[in-house]
UniProtKB/TrEMBL annotation:
Highest taxon listed in the record's lineage: Bacteria
InterPro entries: ACP_syn_III_C, ACP_syn_III_N, Thiolase-like
SUPFAM superfamilies: Thiolase-like
Residues covered by the Beta-ketoacyl-[acyl-carrier-protein] synthase III N-terminal domain: 150-216
Name by which UniProt lists this protein: Beta-ketoacyl-ACP synthase III
Keyword set includes Protease: no
Species, as recorded: Alkalimarinus alittae
Claim: Acyltransferase is one of the keywords in the record: yes
């Protein structure tokens, strides 16, 4: 029986960075402008004044200190509050394709493989640049990969769901090796005018090489012990952007065409769901929680990750056991757990067990159990 392994990962980090303080300064300027502009409506009670944001609240509530972004100037302009990302011509590579190629090349280098070894490309992320042709096919073509490619979107769980598809393809023999790539430009779908969520997201791209255990020869090979996925429908994280928007003029300009969430509800619903899925996944593979040496968790909220790791391990996890990248990257959707894995995998011992676990909109949860070879 063919067994699959992860033999390399790559990460593209955008060079521009925004601290909580910079973000809050721009937001509060927007609030001051709005309240001044609507002063008479506010004083006669027909318009609610906007409230200021706070860097201290953001760090305390989420653990986020900075975020990496594709474009800083547009986000920090109180008159705009959205990144500037120029539309590209059809004969130019799309921006997510550029990010994907950079991350994928690093993953290939780490795995000691070339494009000739890859049979499939799965681009798995929260937002695609267009309806078609698929971004994955563009990436495949740019990289010169002979085989097949397709896109997947399961919001924050896209990468783990993509990993299961890649593992299945390798283990059933339909591909020798697969690239799973997650180019996330979360800032393009974030409402920077919304006090409750303006601080949540950042941009990044990850890539993973999945191949047969028998061919994996890099210094950093992790056998895929198993994958477990779960989805439960919820409107608590929602984005109504879509191709039908132009068919109903009444919806134009409504904030629901960007990311919207009930953060408290998400927190309460998702923590127990994730902990029980990881627990069940360990049990199904005859593994005890004490054997879990590392939890590369989705990076949305620090308290959430502390609670999940405590529920799974039965005690507080150390910062090495459940590493955090959220402070520097914020929530990068599906890329988050893979960034944690990319940065904090090298030091675990041969035979150690770790789990990559994503969770987010859908709801969706993806658990990928790994054993260091
Ligand atoms: N500054 C100061 N005060 C604030 C701010 C702010 N910016 N925002 C809110 N407050 C105030 C509130 O008004 C409230 O005041 P009061 O107590 O007087 O009513 C108080 O702070 C507490 O507010 P909350 O209850 O909202 O604060 P929480 O402690 O719950 O923290 C979080 C908010 C950080 C959002 C938290 O609830 C959380 O992280 N929840 C989990 C969210 C999560 O995991 N979401 C996953 C979504 S990601 C995903 O699935 C990907 C989707 C696809 C991405 C697409 C790209 C965009």
């Amino acid at each position: 029986m063919i067994k699959a392994a992860i033999s390399g990962t790559g990460l593209y980090t955008p060079p521009e960075k925004i601290s909580n303080e910079e973000l809050v300064e721009a937001f509060n300027q927007y609030v001051a402008n709005f309240n001044k502009q609507h002063a008479s409506d506010i004083s006669d009670g027909t318009v609610e004044p906007l409230q200021a944001s706070s860097a201290a609240f953001i760090e305390k509530a989420s653990g986020i200190k900075n975020r990496r972004v594709i474009n800083k100037s547009g986000i920090l302009d109180p008159e705009r509050m959205a990144p500037y990302i120029a539309e590209r011509r059809d004969d130019e590579p799309s921006i997510q394709c550029d990010m994907a190629v950079l991350a994928a090349n690093e993953a290939l280098e780490q795995s000691g493989k070339t494009v000739a070894d890859i049979d499939a490309v799965i681009v798995a992320c929260s937002n695609m640049p267009r309806a078609y042709p698929a971004l994955s096919v563009e990436v495949q073509s740019r990289m010169g990969i002979d085989g097949f490619a397709y896109d997947m979107n399961v919001a924050c769980s896209s990468a783990t769901f993509g990993l299961q598809a890649a593992v299945n393809a390798v283990e059933n023999g339909t591909a020798r090796a697969v690239l799973v790539i997650s180019p996330e430009i979360c800032t393009a779908h974030l409402n920077f005018r919304d006090r409750d969520s303006h601080f949540i997201f950042g941009d990044a791209c990850t890539a993973i090489v999945v191949e047969q255990m028998a061919t994996a020869s890099s210094n950093d090979v992790y056998e895929v012990v198993g994958t477990k996925l779960k989805t439960v429908f919820s409107n608590n994280i929602r984005n109504n952007f879509g191709f039908l928007n132009r068919c109903d003029e009444a919806g134009v300009g409504k904030a629901d065409k960007l990311f919207v969430q009930q953060g408290r509800k998400v927190f309460k619903d998702v923590v127990p769901m994730v902990a029980s899925i990881i627990g069940d996944h360990l049990k199904e593979n005859n593994l005890a929680p004490e054997q879990l040496k590392r939890m590369w968790l989705h990076q949305a909220n620090l308290s959430m990750n502390k609670l999940i790791s405590k529920k799974v391990m039965g005690r507080e996890a150390t910062s090495l056991e459940a590493p955090v990248i959220l402070d520097e990257y914020a929530n990068t959707s599906s890329a988050g757990s893979v960034i944690a894995y990319h940065k904090y995998k090298g030091d675990i011992e041969k035979g150690d067990i770790g789990v990559i676990c994503s969770f987010g909109a859908g709801y969706s949860v993806g658990s990928v159990l790994l054993r260091k070879c």
